[in-house]
Request: fold
Amino acid sequence: MSALTERLDALRALIQSHGFLTGDGLSNEVNIRIFCYAAEDEMPVQHFIRQLITDQSLNCHLIECNLYQIFLSICEEMGIQDEIPVMEDDEGSDFLLEQLQAFATPDAFVDKMQYSPHRQGDVLLLTGVGDVFPFMRVHALLEALQPHFSDMPILVMYPGTFDKSSLRLFDRLTPNGYYRAFTAV
Reply:
């Protein structure tokens, strides 16, 4: 059995545990866990997520929020999805990034993720983190999510590393400080 498979199996067990679902043992910290993996393991991780989402025997209810799908939804609402490539060709990548960051804000993402009522056993599962780089950074999104999802655990599937004080996407980019999360497995 590969190390990744063992970690994914441990993650499956973790998300169903009473301590994870209730946030026990976190010393009143927010219940955010980050599952780090190598970017080259994206396909097996996506396969695992698809299996989890459809697993009716889980002792929790996963609410998947694919950040890339949310971004596309925001663009579609604004009616600009077809203009993005044209804007990049005409104005350049830096201009496009500035424009995307102006409307695809952490608060806009949070608005798309909101649902109610939150139920006991719900787990907010964030996927697509690497797909929304560089216009959305997960540390900024987690800050925005905390007030709205403080009553449930948040699990981030993160293609990179987290050393308990900073996140490093793809294990190559400049780390972003974030200290309020815990390593999942």
Remarks:
- The radius of gyration is 17 Å.
